[in-house]
Amino acid sequence: HYITDHHWTCEAAFKANEAIAKYVYEEFGLAFDKDEFRFYCSEDHYNKVCYPASFLGSIGIRAGEGYTKKEDFSVIVPDFYTHFYYTHLVDSEITNSYSGDFMESFIDESLLLDTHYKNKYMAFLHGGYVENIIENQACGNELKALLVAHSYGRALTPYMSLLYKEVRYLDPQTGRYNESYLEYIRNYMPDVIIVMFNGEIQL
Question: Burial letters for 155-186: b for 16+ Cβ neighbours within 10 Å, e otherwise?
């Protein structure tokens, strides 16, 4: 994680996606194409874009810049063709939607380039935090995944989205997605469900 923040770094999220996909494939025989899996999880097919000394996370903001320094902030970006439709909803109402390649769909670069804005982590998913629906228009399978995670799922979701036809990410923190998860699963019928958080949710 970062020095001044509790969230996963982009690099950690990238590796976490690989570990999760590998586990799902090996333990449950999910129908990933082996060559595609290796391709999407290899850093050889990505570029790292770095924004030096630009990030001060939530812990650093509370402490103040007098007690700590800004960190470098990186985004791992595919160097191959990608195309997504990303929609963010609050209380089932669309608040924002994006389409295009990886950067256009998932990264708010205006926050990364803003020298006055400190918490660059909000650039992931354009700050999406309640219900996030992503369709991968370049995907070769029909698999659907549901991720239930606290806000560190915001960095993981874009990389998960490379492997599935559709990914939905719900944040179960109080005041975010707090409806029935069993009902959501029945309606969505995902092939994979990943749950990563501490606490209780309304089933």
Answer: bbbbbbbbbbbbbbbbbbeeeebeeebeebee
DSSP-based three-state secondary structure for 27:
helix
- Find the helix or strand (DSSP H, E) in which 168 lies: strand 166-170
Q: Any idea of the CA torsion for 170, 174, 175, 178, to the nearest 10 degrees? A: 50
Residue whose tokens read 């256009």 = 104
Comparing 198 with 98, the larger pLDDT belongs to 98
Average the pLDDT over 39-57 and give the result. Answer: 89
Question: Which string of DSSP letters, residue by residue, matches 69-123?
Answer: -PEEEEEEEESS---EEEEEEETTEEEEEEEESHHHHHB-HHHHH-TT---GGGG
Which residues are registered as beta bridge partners of 194? 147
- Spatial separation of the C-alpha atoms in residues 185 and 202, rounded to whole Å: 12
Whole-model pTM: value is 0.91
- Residue 31, both tokens: 């129908």
Q: How far apart are CA 129 and CA 171, in angstroms?
A: 6
- Amino acid at position 32, single letter: F
